[in-house]
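Throughout this review, each integer encodes one residue's backbone shape. One record appears below.

===
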Amino acid sequence: MAITAPLPQGFMDEMRALLPEEADLLFEALDREPQVSIKLNRRKLADDTPIGYNDMEAVMWCTSGRYLPSRPKFTLNPLLHAGTFYVQEASSMIYETIVERIIPMAFDTSRTPAVIDLCAAPGGKTTSIINAIPDGIFVVANEFTPQRAGALKENLLKWGYPEIMVTNSSVDRLAKAGKAFDIVAVDAPCSGEGMMRKEPVARQQWSESLVKQCAALQREILENACDILKPGGFMIYSTCTFNREENERQVEWLVEEKGMVPFDPGFPDDWEIHGGIDTPYPCFRFMPHRTRGEGLFVAVMRKEIDHEERTVPLPKLKEWLRKNVKVIADGVPQREQKGRDMVPCSQWALSSDFPSEEFEGIEVDEATALSYLRHEALHLPPEIGKGFVVIKFKGFPLGFVKNIGQRANNLYPSEWRIRNL
């Protein structure tokens, strides 16, 4: 449903000054229904795998992105909980394409590549990065706010990439790790102008003082981001807002004060991505009156190569993180001690490298799958052996039960159980 609250007058004045020929088109777009889109998990799905939705259309700037004609109740699709797709607005999916294009250059400077998403919750951009990278690359997803960090952990463990670490830390503390990362993603906290079609709070909270406050915080985060980026590494900077203060001016500061080198990923003209405004550097704006998605600003920069500058080897980086920041997920958990038993973790069943041949599995229907996801006890057919059994829906693991004969004890994480049915 479209938002009926009026756009803030100060924002409208700002946009008319910034985009005098397109401002009214932008305002009209912000009063229309938002697009609905999902991203497929490349490690779990082939492009033609059915996931329960019809009439999907491709997102032109992301090969794994799909538009849906309307918004279903995603919670009722067990394949969402299996990590086969992620609900994400389409503009943000450009991260996947950017990372694909910089990988050949980003990873040739290190034999043990590492990537960090500094402001990662709820996980959309991290999952896009994971979709783009080859297996074995170490990925850190950080979120400062504890409540948001929990959702980030859940989403990434469901996505199933094994080389993941989720941290709950301030960026300035992470900066003490040293020059350790080949790609640093900064999807910075912002004034949210690009979300005014999708989120009512974006209209309610907007003010000129908020813009200034966000710009100051972004500058602080970017300063620290430069400190952990290896020479020759790449930084991706993005916001979901339109003003220059939080966008082009931050890029200008990175280039002119921090020595970052602008990089143009080479997006085709037919993607209709707006260029930067009043800047000599390559910057890109997804504008809702031009592209099928919400507002997004993104720029890519590279740190100059300095062969004399010391970098942090991957084993030392992992050791430092475990000792110095709050780690809430260190890889995908496999087994945990419960009483006398070593019990397989349901999160393990969602991993893209899960050894499914080691466990008996049972295919269930949708009603049983939803019952399992509500963390209810199940009753399995008598021919199913006792012990740990993988529950599957349409061939995709959802997690474990312990079959004891009369019933099967549900081992799905209780904090993940679905309630809104």
